[in-house]
């Protein structure tokens, strides 16, 4: 049935969703992962994403939006190709987390929740990433860079700019 | 990738496979992998629960509830299916231990989930990881797939006629989902707001069925307890605090890292010997002993054993075992503001004392920090925090109020110095608290 329908997702994501709605005792349990995987695929949660996910699970679009607005990783607007997330929570704060954030701001020329004009980078100050003993830490999309020094951070951002950065999906 | 550290005082039970390549199922099998669950199938639920009770293991998420007792609360007969739920939503600032378990020993989590399932008569377990842990989710997913391929999961596991399935789940960014009932809501595809208790999850949990929910570290410890015996495990720790724990030492120490130390291990020694002392030879100012929600300790209060009871007696908590060390250069007002900013950001807004309380605490501390505070703001902070305590569905309200009270009570002079213009912020306020 799903195969006959048009989907806005890539074939891999569509296939994943076909399976995801079958593995739980209740279909709706797939909602949070589906939203995150949809975002990975499309870049953000667009109106079309909300509509298709609502239909796949069999809930209303309002139900989807209600959940969407709760989770801090989910976003309704596009970000840069490389979303740079800097932790400034206590363990990172004690080990130059704010200097790390400042360095990112200067180097990328953007502030919190802003995107570079070329669409390559966006920046966000985030809460604890669970990497406290290896502070300071930055997460680029899903990849962590820990025990950062100014030199290491420079190299991480340069690598992404030149297309040599890691990309865990 | 997070680096591993080591110290001679460590007792490596849970972490003995770290750095050994045990995410590979063959290596895990070489290192006693899946032996405990086979013993559990053979000897049955009563034996499992008796060993868990004898072990003295207490929940590693932070509350410290005895695990064996928790498992024994699940009714034997149930009209609805029973579930095991593994909480890998690790989000308490200062805590990064589950990160290492998923990275180095994912099969221990799987095996522990199966053991919990056998103990309570469940056929389905969920392993829930926070959304940011995508690379770890992939490691766990591969481990689950390998276990299925070997016939360790699915129908008729190990050829014994027992069925057990595991589903992995990703969150999408929410501290509150680390609370057990909020996690169940999230897993049911809803906003992660807490449920009122009772009924407790052991009776009415996920999908309304009896549910055991444990922290990932608790679950990963279960196979080791069955292998070495509950009593032997208990002996490693202190009184009523069995075994070892993964303590994360972060902040201003020379050798930050995650160390496996016996329960009851001396906090001062953990900082000065294991963690290598204060960075740059500076003086110690304060210690947050068990994650950001636990009340701060002064340098003269740290000659104390790291277990649930001793820290409780000292007016703090063992919490999640995340020890955050502050040297003399730290402004407590700034640290308090960063802490409350986090809780204000993460409050789900369901209970008014938490939603309003965290917001007003942040505003009040923020005003003091910015140099516009008044003497009465300090008393207001205490009044607000004291009135949040115990008045919310879940412990997030307490988690925000308790550390705040600790800072204001133990470092009142610093708050007064800001009010009286004797101290001032070096960081603009907006940078520290305006971002969220």
Automatic annotation (TrEMBL), chain A:
[2Fe-2S] cluster binds at residues 87, 92, 128, 132. SUPFAM superfamilies: Thioredoxin-like. GO terms for molecular function: 2 iron, 2 sulfur cluster binding; metal ion binding; NADH dehydrogenase activity. Its cofactor is [2Fe-2S] cluster. Keywords: 2Fe-2S, Iron, Iron-sulfur, Metal-binding. Binds 1 [2Fe-2S] cluster. It holds the Pfam family 2Fe-2S_thioredx. The keyword Transmembrane helix does not apply. Transmembrane segments: none annotated. NCBIfam families: nuoE_fam. Belongs to the complex I 24 kDa subunit family. This is NAD(P)H-dependent oxidoreductase subunit E. It comes from Paracidobacterium acidisoli.
UniProtKB/TrEMBL annotation, chain B:
Residues 333-378 form the NADH-ubiquinone oxidoreductase 51kDa subunit iron-sulphur binding domain. Its cofactor is FMN; [4Fe-4S] cluster. Its EC number is 7.1.1.-. InterPro entries: ComplexI_51kDa_subunit, NADH-UbQ_OxRdtase_51kDa_CS, NADH-UbQ_OxRdtase_suF, Nuo51_FMN-bd, Nuo51_FMN-bd_sf, Nuop51_4Fe4S-bd, Nuop51_4Fe4S-bd_sf, SLBB_dom. It catalyses: a quinone + NADH + 5 H(+)(in) = a quinol + NAD(+) + 4 H(+)(out). It is an enzyme of class 7 (translocase). GO terms for biological process: cellular respiration. Gene3D superfamilies: 3.10.20.600, 6.10.250.1450, NADH-ubiquinone oxidoreductase 51kDa subunit, NADH-ubiquinone oxidoreductase 51kDa subunit, iron-sulphur binding domain. Belongs to the complex I 51 kDa subunit family. NDH-1 shuttles electrons from NADH, via FMN and iron-sulfur (Fe-S) centers, to quinones in the respiratory chain. This is NADH-quinone oxidoreductase subunit F. It comes from Paracidobacterium acidisoli. The lineage of its organism: Bacteria, Pseudomonadati, Acidobacteriota, Terriglobia, Terriglobales.
């Amino acid at each position: 049935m799903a195969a006959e329908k048009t989907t806005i997702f890539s074939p891999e994501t569509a296939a994943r969703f076909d399976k995801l709605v079958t593995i739980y005792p209740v279909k709706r349990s797939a909602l949070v992962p589906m939203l995150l995987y949809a975002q990975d695929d499309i870049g953000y949660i667009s109106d079309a994403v909300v509509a298709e996910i609502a239909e796949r699970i069999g809930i209303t679009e309002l139900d989807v939006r209600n959940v969407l607005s709760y989770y801090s990783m989910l976003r309704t607007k596009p970000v840069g190709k490389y979303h740079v997330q800097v932790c400034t929570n206590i363990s990172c704060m004690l080990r130059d987390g704010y200097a790390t954030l400042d360095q990112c701001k200067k180097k990328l020329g953007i502030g919190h929740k802003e995107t570079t004009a070329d669409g390559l980078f966006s920046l966000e100050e985030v809460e604890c990433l669970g990497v406290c003993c290896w502070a300071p830490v930055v997460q680029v999309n899903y990849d962590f860079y820990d025990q950062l020094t100014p030199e290491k951070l420079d190299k991480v951002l340069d690598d992404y700019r030149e297309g040599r950065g890691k990309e865990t999906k | 990738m997070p680096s591993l550290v080591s110290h001679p005082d460590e007792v490596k039970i849970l972490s003995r496979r770290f750095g050994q390549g045990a995410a590979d199922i063959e290596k895990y099998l070489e290192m006693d992998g899946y032996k405990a669950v086979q013993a559990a199938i053979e000897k049955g639920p009563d034996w499992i629960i008796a060993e868990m009770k004898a072990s003295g293991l207490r929940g590693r998420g932070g509350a410290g509830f005895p695990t064996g007792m928790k498992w024994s609360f699940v009714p034997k007969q149930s009209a609805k299916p029973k579930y095991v739920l593994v909480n890998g939503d690790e989000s308490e600032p200062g805590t990064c231990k589950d990160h290492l378990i998923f990275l180095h020993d994912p099969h221990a989590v799987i095996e522990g989930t199966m053991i919990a399932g056998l103990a309570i008569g469940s056929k389905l377990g969920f392993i829930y990881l926070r959304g940011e842990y995508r690379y770890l989710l992939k490691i766990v997913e591969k481990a689950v797939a390998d276990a299925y391929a070997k016939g360790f999961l699915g129908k008729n596991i190990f050829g014994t006629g027992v069925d057990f399935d595991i589903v992995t789940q990703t969150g999408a960014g929410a501290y509150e989902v680390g609370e057990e009932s909020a996690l169940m809501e999230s897993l049911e595809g809803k906003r992660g707001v807490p449920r009122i208790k009772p009924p407790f999850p052991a009776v009415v949990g996920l999908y309304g069925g009896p549910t055991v929910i444990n922290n990932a570290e608790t679950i990963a410890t279960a196979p080791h307890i069955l292998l070495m015996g509950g009593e032997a495990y208990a002996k490693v720790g202190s009184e009523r605090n069995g075994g070892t724990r993964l303590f994360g030492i972060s902040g201003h120490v020379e050798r930050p890292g995650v160390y496996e130390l016996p329960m009851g291990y001396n906090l001062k020694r953990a900082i000065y010997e294991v963690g290598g002392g204060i960075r740059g030879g500076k003086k110690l100012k304060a210690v947050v002993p068990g994650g950001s929600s636990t009340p701060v300790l002064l340098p003269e209060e740290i000659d104390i054993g790291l277990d649930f009871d001793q820290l409780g007696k000292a007016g703090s908590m063992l919490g999640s075992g995340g020890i955050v060390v502050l040297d003399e250069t730290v402004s407590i007002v700034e640290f308090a503001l960063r802490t409350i900013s986090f809780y204000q950001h993460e409050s789900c807004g369901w209970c008014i004392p938490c939603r309003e309380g965290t917001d007003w605490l942040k505003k009040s501390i923020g005003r003091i920090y910015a140099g516009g505070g008044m003497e009465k703001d300090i008393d207001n902070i205490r009044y607000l925090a004291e009135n949040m305590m115990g008045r919310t569905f879940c412990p997030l309200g307490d988690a925000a109020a308790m550390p705040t009270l600790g800072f204001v009570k133990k470092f009142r002079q610093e708050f007064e110095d800001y009010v009286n213009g004797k101290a001032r912020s070096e960081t603009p306020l907006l940078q520290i608290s305006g971002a969220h």
